[in-house]
Amino acid sequence: MAAVGRIIDRHAPWLVLQLLWRRPKRDEVLIVGGALVPTRDRTVAAPSKNCRYSTNLQVVIQADTRLVFTVGDPLPDNRNDCIAFHASGAEAACGAAMVVAGGDYQGIGAIIPHHRRRAGQEHLPQWKEERNASHRRV
To answer: What is the mean pLDDT of residues 79-93?
Structure first.
């Protein structure tokens, strides 16, 4: 419980504490990301590489305001982010809105602004490397 208290104290200013359930507009841009939260509740946790039990939370924010739009249900840490995004209910909450995600969300219909090397390709063109670097900074 002490860890949860510290997490809430630190991040409460950025969280939406009063949830307003609404469907996002079609032209709204949402950003999704996964967060691993250490927990002792083993009903919703799984051991990770560092032998700590943690849960996978999918957090969706609005791109223009940076406010939290929704947080998915907690799932064990051993779930892939693509699976967790769907299974946690975060995907359903996003509706028809445009979703931007990182490279670990391939195949969910989100916009992934990464450029990847193709099979047999040693290097990306310089402009693609620069765009990837810019994306990582954001």
So the answer is: 87
